[in-house]
TrEMBL record:
Active site: 174
Lineage: Bacteria, Pseudomonadati, Pseudomonadota, Gammaproteobacteria, Oceanospirillales
This protein's UniProt keywords: NAD, Oxidoreductase
The UniProt record lists the keyword NAD: yes
Gene Ontology MF terms in the entry: NAD binding; NADP binding; oxidoreductase activity
The organism's place on the tree of life at top rank: Bacteria
6-phosphogluconate dehydrogenase NADP-binding domain boundaries: 8-162
Protein name, UniProt field: 3-hydroxyisobutyrate dehydrogenase
Amino acid sequence: MNTDKKPTIAVLGTGLIGAPVALNLHKQGFKVHAWNRTAAKAKALVVDGVQAFDTPANAVQGADIIVTVLTDSESVQGVMQEAAPALKQGAIWVQLSTVGIEGIGTLAALAERHGLVFYDAPVQGTRQPAELAQLIILASGPVEQRAVVQPVFDAIGKRTLWVSEQIGGSSRLKLALNNWAFALTHGLAESIAIAKGLGIDPALVVDVVTGGPMDSGYFQAKAAAILAENYTASFSIANAVKDAQLVVDAAAQAGLQVGVAQASLRRFERVQEAGHGDKDMAASYLA
């Protein structure tokens, strides 16, 4: 890898998280290639200085680091297989998507077959933290190349937690954290629904919690969305269904009884079945 200048980075997937990731990398002086299945999403970044490409193979051509920010393990695997003919031997692959335990194992094996240095690095945070370069990166992977990937993480996040040298540790931690986020979302949504159903102004729930030990930025953001009936997606119901299923599957493999996680999944599924899959997961309230 050329050490005289910043590495070239290919960002595969420029959706709600991937687009700001690409832009923040460019702002920090990296040369950024971008690709997205919906080409217009990648091309929209060109005005800001990112180079858009029409295929994954073209995007990774000459890239020292590949960053995948896609929906699930199947999507990531498919795109990386499309990119395979142009991958540089010894390039670094930073995998930001939430793919679960089996998924991360499949992708690590794919990286090994293509001679890539692989980092399991799912992120904590949704659209707004991504836009503000305030993501928390949960990173696992070999010590040897951490000095190369750390500036990448610094460009897109406010904190990097190195979980393990072993691939998969970060993906396991991400499932536990997602379960907590889902529990908070459902608890808030149901509490507001209960207040309204009992004839109490639901804004009073927020008023009482504000400034107390149960308050948080997350609580305030999701409460504001529910009260305003504004479900513009930061993290969609469809993605929540996918990730909640990964939590339930992982717990089953570990022999854990997770009634709250199972109820969380079913609630998201009900909202999706009602036609709200593209809305923010605060639309749990609509259940």
